[in-house]
Automatic annotation (TrEMBL):
Main location: membrane
Domain VTT: 64-181
Subcellular location(s) of the protein: Cell membrane
Membrane topology field: Multi-pass membrane protein
Alphabetized InterPro entries for the sequence: DedA_domain, VTT_dom
Record keywords: Cell membrane, Membrane, Transmembrane, Transmembrane helix
UniProt xrefs under Pfam families: VTT_dom
Record has Glycoprotein as a keyword: no
Keyword Transmembrane set for record: yes
Protein name per its UniProtKB record: VTT domain-containing protein
TM spans (from-to): 6-30, 50-75, 81-100, 160-179, 191-209
Length: 223
């Protein structure tokens, strides 16, 4: 388990460092994203949708504030078109992360975990608990991309990964874009409250899952 956590933390740090670097340099900020979306809207809804998709796919390589982008997509494109664009962008990022890690992640895993036995243990552990990790990955930024890369690296079945990814992503994208569609510059409260509610719900699920998982070995020992 320690080896798996170490790999996840390394991936998390790599994604987080890109986000911090771009924010500190001013290359990619929430204000800039909002300006770009406004300019894209002036061209056409099609360009707007393509820009949202591209921005969310870019999140696979450079950490992007995806919840903010999803809410803004709902605000600028409306709920239906915003939802479609966000879902496509999320799906492309997840599948891209899975495939790249499936093809090239084995070499990286060998470097990060040199002991073959520990590598096998990490793979087995993720295949056992990875489904829940993907399902609840939207609880915090960067974790969805990390979980997608881990799924490919740890050779989780693609069908299993895609099912979990969609179950996690579809309601998240639907709610986030809905929040944006009913919000405005003068009244951003719906987006703020729904964003807080989404994160709170997912964190609560994480808490109960972790609690149930950590108590299980104790109950077995007691028997």
């Amino acid at each position: 388990m320690t080896a798996l956590i170490r790999v996840a933390l390394i991936l998390f740090t790599l994604f987080a460092s890109t986000f911090l670097l771009l924010n500190l340099t001013g290359i990619l900020t929430v204000e800039l994203i909002e300006q770009w979306l406004t300019q894209a809207k002036e061209l056409s809804p099609t360009y707007m949708g393509l820009f949202v998709i591209s921005l969310l796919f870019l999140d696979l390589f450079v950490a992007v504030p995806t919840l903010t982008v999803a809410i803004l997509a709902g605000y600028f494109l409306g709920h239906s078109y915003g939802f479609i664009a966000v879902l496509i962008g999320f799906s492309m990022a997840g599948i891209g992360g899975y495939c790249l890690s499936r093809w090239y992640g084995g070499k990286l895993l060998t470097v990060l975990i040199k002991d073959e036995k520990k590598r096998d243990e990490a793979i087995t552990m993720f295949q056992k608990h990875g489904l829940v990790t993907i399902l609840l990955s939207r609880a915090m930024p960067i974790l969805p991309e990390v979980s997608a890369c881990l799924a490919g690296m740890m050779k989780l079945r693609f069908r299993t990964f895609l099912s979990a990814w969609l179950v996690s992503t579809v309601p998240y994208a639907f709610i986030a874009t809905y929040a944006g569609s009913i919000s405005s510059i003068d009244n951003p409260k719906p987006a703020i409250f729904i964003a807080i509610g989404l994160s709170g719900l997912l964190w609560t699920c994480w808490f109960f899952y972790h609690r149930a998982h950590t108590r299980r070995p104790i109950s077995k020992t007691a028997k």
